[in-house]
Amino acid sequence: MNAPITVRDISAEEHRAWLRTQPAASFLQTPAWGEVKRDWRHESVGWFEGQQMVGAALVLHRSLPRVKRSLAYVPEGPCIDWDSPRLVELLRALRDHLRGKGAFALRIGPPVATHRWGATAIKEAIASDIVRRYDEAPPTSTDAVGVTVVDTLRRLGFRHLSADDGFTAGQPEYVFQVPLEGRTEADLLAGMNQLWRRNIKKTERNGVQVRVGDASDIAAFHRVYVETAERDRFTPRGREYFEHMYAVMSAEDPERIRVYLAEHEGDVLAATIWIRVGEHAWYSYGASTAAKRELQASTAIQWRMMRDSLAAGATVYDLRGITNTVAADNPHIGLIRFKVGTGGEAVRLAGEWDLPLNRLLYKAFDLYMKRR
């Protein structure tokens, strides 16, 4: 007979120790990320089968105004065995633990894929006069575990939060990834399209240099990032946010986060933030200047990060969110074409799901968020 599954609070060190036993986990599920998100209250919890630890999660809490009840959010998690025959018990144990702590709703984002579209499938979809979205195009492959997880969540009463374009207020449902497992640099380069390979050679001929910076280079990254925000019309985060993120994530693991800078004759032309947890590496933030764009500094910095991810033992290089579109007239299609050139694949994740624990408060919270 199986031992009962329970969930209890654990220390940050217990949480980190668990993550070190896993091949990979989202950086949003590290204790350090709880320190980054200072506008949320955070805690670490662990699953136990008897006395054996079988899972962990970072839980972020957002309280309702004037009410001591919270939304319990597990971004890109929890870190459990999603293929477990006891998945329902694992999820119910988390539900019961958080309900006992005053949560009015549980929000999770299972880090499992449901469908994948390779570069050829994406190009065919873009060329189609009928297909306008990934979910209208035949996938290259379907992941049975992810499909089962989605079915299980629906049966348990979870509500899917996906927006039509694949973006919600939380984490993206569609991402773009370059598989690295079992590959060499030469193989990675050969998998790219001709434009990418030509631009990589161009950056080398033109003397673009890419280096890994340190905490003192966050200011240079932020200057380029603010310029990018003005050009692309989004609201930038303050420099102190990135300085704090770099400090707490580096303290957790010196190899967790890096800042990269692409330079030419003393000018910083592009800058990025790279993060790795185990075998998963992310291109987390990127920025570039309008100056010397013909030198392809953004291509140079991406190629360096891919090679460094490979050297670090990563099996996935993740370029993060994309929209659910392959329509040739969509304003995001240029970004899609840029990423497809890497030879990677579009991946649909299970997405984010809410489980109301107090329906009245959940409805009030939903209305509050819509009016913000």
Automatic annotation (TrEMBL):
GO biological process, one term: regulation of cell shape
The UniProt record lists the keyword Transport: no
Family annotation (Pfam families): FemAB
One Gene Ontology MF term: aminoacyltransferase activity
Keyword terms of this UniProt record: Acyltransferase, Cell shape, Cell wall biogenesis/degradation, Peptidoglycan synthesis, Transferase
Gene3D superfamilies: 3.40.630.30
Xref: SUPFAM superfamilies: Acyl-CoA N-acyltransferases (Nat)
Keyword Transferase: yes
Coiled-coil residue windows: none
Family: Belongs to the FemABX family.
Listed name of the protein: Lipid II:glycine glycyltransferase (Peptidoglycan interpeptide bridge formation enzyme)
